[in-house]
Specification:
The protein has 412 residues and is of the alpha+beta class. Helix content is 33%, strand content 24%. It has helices at residues 132-145, 161-171, 202-208, 224-238, 256-261, 267-273, 290-300, 311-319, 325-342, 360-382, 387-393, 398-407, and strands at 2-3, 11-23, 30-33, 37-41, 48-49, 60-65, 68-73, 80-82, 85-87, 89-92, 97-100, 103-115, 123-124, 127-128, 151-154, 179-183, 187-190, 213-217, 247-252, 276-279. Strands 1, 2, 3, 8, 9, 11 and 12 form a seven-stranded antiparallel β-sheet that branches. Strands 17-16-18-19-15-20 form a six-stranded mixed β-sheet, with helices on both faces.
């Protein structure tokens, strides 16, 4: 599991199901599995193969859930014993002994934690950054790209969760295969051919992601029926009957454990998707990335965003808290670009407006006042004087907006 306990210090934590053979042909050997489910038996398609005639071909399995681990017998001939008691299905705790025929295995949980190194660079796929914290997250993305385990990206709205998933996909061995997004609006969205009117058929759409990646956006927002169909499809792909190889991942703005507790999310689905986790930082906690993000957006949108953003705007951006994060920065850039084009000549900032005898602070205040007046006039023009609409479009508190209107003597 990739876990971020502190925004500025993400670390790699791998939780493993571990089994130690204390009796039988494998006695003395230890095994670790970083998966939500391991299958044990005599057949070659098991995760742990036991060469013991008293063990069934598919004897038992251990599953990881949000709230613990479950031991489940798979219809074995001799049965499965947990600490001496025969079970069909039961919770298992570290130190317990599982018996299958003449073989006995001790169950425990292994945890390996490793600090993430700084990524050597300022971009990883579509991700751009300069902050050390994001360089660690980029290192996590690179690490995730080397694995086929499902992963979960956590973060506030607009922090770039889809971008992170895209970076992982494009850096891995599936980069030339489909990348498909599933969301709660009852449609699967491909980054190549989005179709908002598509009626979902989860099994067939998973097939479209064959050999590629399927990203589930806000899995807790899917209906209970969709969650069950999705998890059953995942189970089928994991079985010996499955013929597809799809990597699954998810993005969420909420803690999946809490959504399970509320009954909004299937526990098995949540457990499967949580094998690897990374939490993205909000933009307000990594403002040193603002300028490189601005340059990036201007480079990829040359028709809409060209030229150089005035330094006084960049300064304002550093003071803003960005409640909607990077998505809000994109919108604000387009807004400011439009504003610069409609500034009245008398208010348009220019070098000619610099005056000897005025301090830096006085010049800065003059430019900010000019920007605020022009912004408010433009905002109210497109909102036709509707202050509620203006507040929403500007992502600004209504009281603060009223305060600015009063300061600049702009009538509503």
């Amino acid at each position: 599991m990739l876990k971020d306990t502190e925004h500025n210090n993400p670390s790699l934590t791998v939780h493993q199901i571990k089994l130690s053979a204390v009796r039988g042909p494998l006695k003395g050997r230890r095994y670790g599995f970083a998966s939500h489910r391991i299958k044990v038996g005599k057949a070659d398609d098991n995760d742990l193969v036991i060469p013991d005639d008293t063990v069934s071909r598919h004897h038992f399995e251990i599953l990881r859930f949000i709230d613990g681990f479950v031991l489940r017998d798979k219809g074995s001939t001799n049965g499965t014993l947990l600490d001496g008691a025969k079970i069909r299905e039961a919770y298992i705790k570290p130190g317990s002994i599982v018996s299958a025929g003449d073989t006995k295995l001790k169950f425990f949980i292994g945890v390996v934690q490793q600090q993430l190194p700084l990524f050597n660079g300022t971009s990883f796929g579509p991700m751009v950054f300069t902050s050390d914290s994001m360089r660690k997250i980029a290192s996590a993305a690179k690490n995730a790209s080397l694995s086929d385990l499902p992963f979960l990206v956590l973060g506030e709205q607009g922090t770039g969760k889809k971008t992170f998933c895209t970076a992982v996909h494009e850096a891995g061995k599936r980069k030339n295969q489909p990348l498909v997004f599933l969301n709660s609006s009852n449609s699967f969205l491909s980054i190549e051919k989005p179709n908002k009117n598509f009626e979902p058929d989860i099994p067939s759409l998973i097939k479209k992601a064959e050999k590629g990646s399927l990203i589930i956006e806000e899995p807790w927002d899917l209906s209970a029926k969709q969650q069950r169909i999705l998890f059953d499809s995942i189970e089928h792909l994991s079985s010996e009957k499955g013929s597809l190889t799809v990597r699954f991942a998810a993005t969420s703005s909420r803690d999946l454990t809490k959504e399970v507790e509320k009954g909004r999310l299937n526990c098995q689905l949540a457990s499967y998707l949580s094998s690897l986790q990374i939490k993205l930082m909000p933009l307000r906690d990594r403002k040193e990335d603002i300028e490189v993000l601005i340059s990036h957006f201007m480079d990829i949108n040359p028709k809409d965003l060209h030229g150089v953003l005035p330094s006084f705007l960049i300064d304002l951006f550093h003071k803003f808290d960005w409640p909607c994060n990077i998505s809000e920065l994109k919108l604000m850039l387009k807004t400011c670009k439009s504003l610069i084009g409609v500034f009245p000549e008398r208010e348009k900032p220019s070098f000619a407006s610099f005056q000897e005898g005025m301090s830096f602070r006085e010049h800065k205040k003059q430019w900010i006042d000019s920007f605020e007046r022009s912004f408010l006039k433009w905002l109210f023009e497109i909102c036709e004087g509707n202050i509620s609409m203006a507040s929403r479009k500007a992502a600004m508190d209504r009281k603060h907006l009223n305060k600015l209107l009063k300061r600049h003597e702009i009538k509503k």
